[in-house]
Specification:
2 domains; 236 residues; 6 helices; 64% helix; mainly alpha; Herpes Virus-1; two-stranded antiparallel ribbon; binds zinc ion
């Protein structure tokens, strides 16, 4: 690609012999064919040789990438009147003077400052965003810390309640053990009393039998006679 028309001060005044037959722009880094002396932009002919055949597009002579610059055309191009490429600058001058102008072009510096300012604004907005995220994270950390503290307090209260209930349970278990022990003793005493009552049953039965004999079968007078008690009784 060569020098485009909008970069020229007067595009119509440029001779057609200074235009590349490939891109039709004014030559940029002009090189020429060693056979037919046709001039091309260096980038245009190198791209054509690489992508198509390695021959001259004009005379079909073999071409290599080792192309010699055309110094005569270069000197003519240096005299062309060109514009500054930076928007807002109205400088015009020789093409070979444009690099020097560009190094201290105010429009370029203004453009760079605007780019820097935009970049600074971008960085500033990023910093503000980071600060907001940092604040939100700190707030979240504080909330989590408070929540953790509340949970720890609740856990302590629950543990105390569990300890109290465990103490009450131990006390109730002790009461149950005491009652069980007392119940065992009562059962043992009842068993002992039943045993004594049962052992008296034969004696009671014998006593009732003797009373029965004396009172219902007239046993007492007979026994008294046998024993000589009757006379004593009548004598009295
Ligand atoms: Zn070209
Ligand atoms: Zn040629
Ligand atoms: Zn300028």
């Amino acid at each position: 690609m060569g020098l485009e028309d909008h970069e020229l001060a007067r595009p119509d005044a440029v001779s057609p012999t200074l235009r590349c037959p490939i891109c039709t722009d004014v030559f940029a880094e002009p090189v020429s064919c060693s056979s037919c002396q046709q001039v091309f932009c260096r980038s245009c002919i190198e791209r054509a040789v690489l992508t198509c055949e390695p021959v001259c597009p004009t005379c079909r002579a073999p071409m290599t990438k080792d192309l010699q610059p055309n110094l005569v055309v270069s000197s003519l191009l240096n005299e062309l009147q060109v514009r500054c490429v930076h928007p807002g600058c109205y400088w015009t001058g020789r093409w070979d003077e444009r690099p020097l102008h560009s190094s201290h072009c105010l429009a370029r510096e203004l453009l760079l400052m605007q780019e820097w300012k935009a970049e600074m604004e971008h960085v500033r907005s990023m910093l503000i965003e980071r600060e907001k995220e940092k604040g939100a994270m700190h707030q979240r950390i504080k909330e989590l810390t408070d929540h953790t503290s509340r949970l720890e307090e609740e856990a302590k209260v629950k543990q105390l309640q569990v300890n109290v209930k465990q103490s009450m349970l131990d006390f109730k278990q002790q009461e149950v053990e005491d009652l069980r022990r007392q119940l065992g003793q009562v059962i043992k005493q009842q068993h002992a009393s039943h045993f004594h009552l049962h052992s008296l049953f034969p004696l009671l039965f014998l006593l009732l039998f003797v009373i029965h004999l004396f009172f219902f079968y007239d046993t007492l007078p007979r026994v008294s006679r046998v024993l000589g008690i009757q006379e004593c009784l009548f004598a009295t």
